[in-house]
DNA sequence: ACGGTGATGAGACCAAGTCCCATCACAGGG
DNA sequence: CCCTGTGATGGGACTTGGTCTCATCACCGT
């Protein structure tokens, strides 16, 4: 096995997605993923805490982008403007080049409960990032929690529409639409 | 080992909570839980799909109660009234007798990421129950999704306050308060 | 008393994940 | 040019979660 080839982590992630798509998540062992990447099982677990994580590497970047974007907003910004800015800041993850990869990855996740469970954990972490950034702006407990959930919902909705087969529009535009629609729905709930 | 003693499932659940509280979730093996209940490891997994599930048995009843309560509402009910009815219907799970047990259980869950992850899965299932019941009432996609999240948030908030050490109030009352507070927060977001 | 049913015990087995140690590639200093 | 330190890797032992199969036993109706 040729050691010392670069990008071990990336090779593992890409081998994993390939194998999951072919044989399913449960039908693939960590040792097989490592082998396809030309690495050993122990090396796999040195790069990823567990077998699920290989599909979720880099998720934290989105949460950090959320928080950074909100911190960059003027103090006068309304909750809605903060959310707009946060969601827009995640656009780096949803360029056209990435779409095919993201679609394939999502199909694998949707197909397996264990992976959907991990996705929920990641989503919760994104929502928590929104919530704590909103509280830093002085929002009250409940309003921060609610606004964070609305932001999370808009993010999910925009994501779902972005990866839909029929879609040709950009993520940023979809996110703005989703958020506006949810805000008016919120008004009707009060 | 005395076979055929009744309530194997309950004995397993209670042994599990005891051991988790003593040694932590990760410090406890499934075989140890079974042994304390006077059963074998294979019997444990016959009753619970995995080690985490032993703490979440019966959660689905709450989701079913949500849906049933909404179906029992008059057709004229507003989304807010539907949510009130749903949350109120979950009160059976939060009587005073159960409080000590619930508090102990929650401490164990909060202490372990794996368990928190499973909790998110259960929470998502409750939210989905709310959402699908709301859509049956004719609510649009986004409004149903948003209202379900608000209901879930109110449920979580009421639960957190109910198990707080200083609390002496009942779950139903707390749930109503949380929902009203969130509804007015929602109005301010639109 | 007898056979059927259903819950259990026991143990083999696989894969996830941890751990430890040897090994190798590369870097820099003598 | 050699020597040594550093860091990523390979390899394998080990524990545990989880599955599966088969034998066993308690109870129930006939």
UniProtKB/TrEMBL annotation, chains A, B:
Keywords: DNA-binding, Transcription, Transcription regulation
Pfam families in UniProt: TetR_N (PF00440)
Record keyword DNA-binding present: yes
Known DNA-binding region: 29-48
KW Transcription regulation (keyword) present: yes
HTH tetR-type domain mapped to chain residues: 6-66
Official protein name in the record: TetR family transcriptional regulator
The organism's taxonomic lineage, starting at the top: Bacteria, Bacillati, Actinomycetota, Actinomycetes, Micromonosporales
């Amino acid at each position: 096995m040729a050691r010392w080839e670069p990008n071990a982590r990336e090779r593992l992630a890409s081998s994993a997605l390939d194998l999951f798509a072919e044989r399913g998540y449960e039908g693939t062992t960590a040792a097989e993923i490592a082998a396809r990447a030309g690495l050993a099982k122990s090396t796999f677990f040195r790069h990823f805490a567990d077998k699920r994580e290989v599909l979720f590497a880099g998720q934290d970047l989105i949460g950090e982008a959320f928080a950074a974007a909100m911190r960059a907003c003027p103090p006068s910004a309304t909750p809605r403007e903060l959310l707009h800015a946060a969601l827009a800041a995640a656009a780096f993850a949803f360029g056209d080049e990435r779409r095919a990869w993201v679609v394939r990855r999502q199909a694998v996740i949707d197909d397996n409960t264990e992976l959907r469970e991990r996705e929920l954990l990641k989503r919760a972490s994104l929502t928590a990032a929104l919530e704590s950034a909103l509280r830093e702006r002085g929002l009250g407990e409940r309003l921060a929690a609610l606004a964070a959930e609305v932001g999370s919902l808009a993010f999910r909705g925009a994501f779902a529409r972005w990866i839909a087969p029929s879609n040709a529009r950009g993520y940023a535009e979809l996110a703005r639409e989703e958020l506006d629609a949810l805000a008016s729905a919120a008004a009707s709930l009060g």
